[in-house]
Design brief:
By secondary structure, this protein is mainly alpha-helical. The protein has 2 domains: 208 residues, HUPs (Rossmann fold); 92 residues, Tyrosyl-Transfer RNA Synthetase. Helix 1 links the parallel strand 1 and strand 2. Helix 3 packs across helix 12, helix 7 packs across helix 8 and helix 10 crosses helix 11. The longest helix has 30 residues. Bound molecules: adenosine-5'-tetraphosphate (AQP). The site of adenosine-5'-tetraphosphate has 21 residues, from helix 1.
Length: 347
Amino acid sequence: MTAPVQTPQPFPTRIFSGIQPSGGLTLGNYLGALKRFVEKQDEGIETIYCLVDMHAITVWQDPVKLRQQTREAAAAFLAAGIDPARSILFNQSQVTAHVELGWIFNCVARMGWMGRMTQWKDKAGKNAEAASLGLFAYPALMAADILAYKATHVPVGEDQKQHLELTRDIAIKFNNDYGVTFFPLTEPVIEGAATRVMSLRDGSKKMSKSDPSDQSRINLTDDADTIAAKIRKARTDPDPLPDSLAGLKDRPEARNLVNIYAALAGHTPEQVVADFAGAQFGTFKPALADLAVAKLAPITAEMNRLMQDPAEIDRILGEGAARAEAIARPILDQVYDIVGMIRSRRG
Ligand code: AQP
C-alpha cells in the first residue's frame, strides 16, 4: 500500500442522489430528498437522479410490484418537478457501471466498516444470519452509485449521513491504495426543516415506506381525505403548542408535525411555533392537513396522469440511462486501468 494521500477537490460540482423503489414514496422521501432534488436542479447544478432498483432487491421484492413501484417513483420525480431535459433520471439496473464499480468497492471496503452501519443493524435486526449479502454490502454499492459519476455532492435525509461518510472512506482508501487522486470526497447535503421526518405513530421512528403500518406515513399516492385522516390520527400529546422551539424538547411527535408544517410551508420551525403559539392540536392538525393537501394533491394528480402512459416513463428512463452511461463508462474504464485489469479490444 502506498502512503496516504490527502485528496484535494479538483472536481467540478456534480450532484447525484437516489431513492429506492422499494415501496410507494412517502412524505419523508419527498421532504428529505425529492423536493430538494428539484431545488438543486433549479439552481442550475448538474444533477443526476437514480431509482436504485438494485438496492431495492437487497430485500425481496415482488417482480411485478417492483416494476410498478419503479415507474411510480419515476412519475413522482417528474410530477415533483424533475425535468428530464435538465436532470438525468434513470433506473440503476440500466447502467451496469454501478454494479461493476460496486464489486470493486466490495474489495476496497472492510467488513468491519459495513458491520457498523446502523441501517444494516436496523434492517438485519436480530436475525442477521438470514439477511442477504446484498443488504450487508449496500453501502459499497451506494458509494459506487455516487462515485461512478465522481459526484461531489449528495442531497440526502439525515438517515443517510453515515453511508455518505463510508463513501468518503471508500474513496480515500481507493485513492490511497492505488496512489491516485481519482475519486472526490463527496459531501452530503442535509438541509431544510425536515431532514428526518418521523413516523406519525411513533416519534422515535423514521417515517419509512417499508413500515408495516400505513398509518405511520403519508404516501405520495394518498388522496386528500386519507392525508387529512392520517394527520388527524397522528400521535401527539395533550399540551398546546409552545411559543418557542425549546418548549418542544421531549415532545418528539409535536416537534415532527411542526417540522413537517415548516418544510411544506417553506418556513422555519421557529416561525411555525411563533404563528401557532398556544394553539391546541385540534387547531394545528387541520391547518397542517390543509397545507399538506394543497402541496401534495397537485403532485399526486400529475403522478396519476403520468402513470397512464408507462411506455413514456420507460422511454424517459431509457434516455436518462444512456446519458448516465455516457458519463459513467469512461470513468469505469479508467478505474479498470488503475486496478490493473486487461481490457482487450473485441470484434
Ligand atoms: N423519514 C425521512 N425523512 C427524511 N428523509 C428521508 N428519506 C427517507 N426517509 C426519510 C430520504 O429519502 C431518500 C431515499 O431513501 P431510500 O428510499 O433510498 O431509503 P431509505 O432512506 O431507507 O428510505 P425509506 O423510505 O425508509 O425506505 P425503506 O423503507 O425501503 O428502507 C434518502 O435521501 C433518505 O435520506
